[in-house]
Amino acid sequence: MPDTYHALGLHMHQPPGNLKLLIEKANWDANQIMLCYERPLKYLRQYHDVARLHVGFSGILLEQFRNPEIVQRYASIVDIPRMIHDYAAADNLELIGMGYYHPIFPLIPTDDWHEQLHRGREIMTELFGRAPKGFWPPEMAFAMEMVPYLVDAGYEYVVVDSVHVKPIEGPTTQCTPFKPYLAEYGGKQITVIPRNRDISNAQESGMDAGWFESEVRNKVSGCPPPRLVTTWSDGENGGWFRQTSEPSGFWGHFYAPFMEKVRGGSIQPVLLSEYIREHPPQEKVWVQTGAWNVGSTSGYDFAQWAGSETQRRAIAEIVEVSRIYHEASASLQRQTQIGLADPEAERLLREARELVLQAETSCYLFWGDAWVNRVYEVTIPARDLLAKARQRIQS
Question: What are the domain boundaries of the chain?
Answer without folding.
Answer: 4-287, 307-394
